[in-house]
Amino acid sequence: MPHVIIIGAGLAGSLLSIYLAKRGITVDVYEARDDMRLHDVAAGRSINLALSDRGIAALREVGMDEYMLAEAVPMYGRMIHSVAGETKLMPYSGRQGEYINSVSRAGLNIALMNEADKYRNVTFHFNERCTEFDCKTGVAAFSSGNSVSADTVIATDGAGSAVRHAMINGGVERFDFSQKWLEHGYKELHIPPGAGGEFQMERNALHIWPRHKFMMIALPNFDGSFTCTLFFAHKGDNSFDEISRGSAMDFFEANFPDAIPLMPTLIEDYLHNPVGNLGTVKCFPWNAGGKALLLGDSAHAVVPFYGQGMNCAFEDVRVLDALIERHGSDWEAVYNEYGELRKANTDAIADMAEENFYEMRDAVADPVFLRKRELETKLEQSYADYFSKYSMVTFREDLPYAIAKEKGNAQDRLLMQICSEVESVADIDLESVLALVRRLS
Ligand SMILES: Cc1cc2nc3c(=O)[nH]c(=O)nc-3n(C[C@H](O)[C@H](O)[C@H](O)COP(=O)(O)OP(=O)(O)OC[C@H]3O[C@@H](n4cnc5c(N)ncnc54)[C@H](O)[C@@H]3O)c2cc1C
């Protein structure tokens, strides 16, 4: 029976353990943190996440999709909040049934671990932080003093991966690596449920307060609360460094006045919650022969503005599983083909995620962009074969990210041009736009 070690029992590692267990593979999962089912382990980042079709498709294959969606809050569009407190809903798609889902990160992680625990061939080892990995022998060493090896190691240990570190430091020849930090970080804030447990804003939307140099978003939680995330520069004017105890309330009053009455612990949260960093990691090759593979954020951490990091990591698992089906436990063959298939796609979603930061922060306040979204919604309502770039990325699990990026960018340029030449979308002939779009592909 093949034996695989997974390092990291986060979202990708826990899902992967189920896929491998179903194939009869013996799986040992080593996780740095304590068991989050027994102790309240701070996940360290984002309490909730947007789960969309690519992630759902991967959960479906192991029978976990319906279970997860039962406790998700559907989000049908972006609710834009102006400084004056006006709101406008921009649907994600013009088609029925195309929406994203706000799910609890810990809830999803725990559900995946519980599912994996049903298999006798999966064992979790907690409080085991990998400190070193030998790319030649495949031996992983842990802070506990344990050293282990198996037929192969799959590293799902996230953006700061210890296994990737070993690959960079001579473990893999000609290893390409880049890490790019965004000048913005993030901090989570909280909107509790109302007195009767009700949502205090529209529940079925992802709320955005776009303010050009910074923005705040809020995703609904199943219990009636919202988790807000302030994306803000680390340094300079209007930054985490600059806005401190004395100026925080003035800053929120000037920029997010409609949110303040909903946030009774605002200043406390702002002062006490940690600031997270945001960055993009690209590297290649992802494997050390057949000894190890990087998967999920360890291979390609992306900024969160397309809501795709986890969805992409889940898609990684699905693609890898299909290759294990084809090559069995010839790990080197599996990993080489996996890298060839996936790299262009993960690069594409990394680039689109960065671009979407500027779209969410700036463009949603731009009238031409708003007309373009309106036009796209109309096109999606009228034509089954029209998909916006957002829809291609989010709702087309059959379409590789790289194709979504190429087609989507060409389409975006065309539609922005058309919308810059009219005052109203009512002046645009949909048939002729569609003909131009079809000519692009
Ligand atoms: C603010 C924010 C919002 C986000 N929103 C979304 C969203 O809406 N939708 C979406 O799809 N994605 C979102 N993401 C991205 C998503 O969180 C990641 O892509 C996803 O968590 C990647 O899963 P992973 O399992 O690869 O890594 P992780 O979730 O980081 O899991 C890594 C695991 O490995 C463990 N570990 C780390 N180092 C070691 C070690 N040395 N030894 C042993 N174990 C170790 C960690 O404790 C952890 O359990 C968001 C990210 C951020 C920061």
Structure, described:
- Helix 1 packs parallel to helix 4, helix 1 packs parallel to helix 9 and helix 12 packs antiparallel against helix 13.
- The strands form 4 sheets. This protein has a 7-stranded mixed beta sheet. It has a 6-stranded mixed beta sheet with strand order 8-2-1-12-19-18, sandwiched between helices.
- The protein has 14 helices and 19 strands.
- By secondary structure, it is of the alpha/beta class.
- Strand 10 and strand 11 form a beta hairpin.
- Bound molecules: flavin-adenine dinucleotide.
- Flavin-adenine dinucleotide binds next to helix 1, strand 3 and helix 9.
Which small compounds were modeled alongside the protein? flavin-adenine dinucleotide
Computed CA radius of gyration, to the nearest angstrom: 22 Å
What is the arithmetic mean of pLDDT? 95
CATH superfamily of the largest domain, by name, is: FAD/NAD(P)-binding domain
- Within the CATH hierarchy, at the fold level, what is the topology of the largest domain? FAD/NAD(P)-binding domain
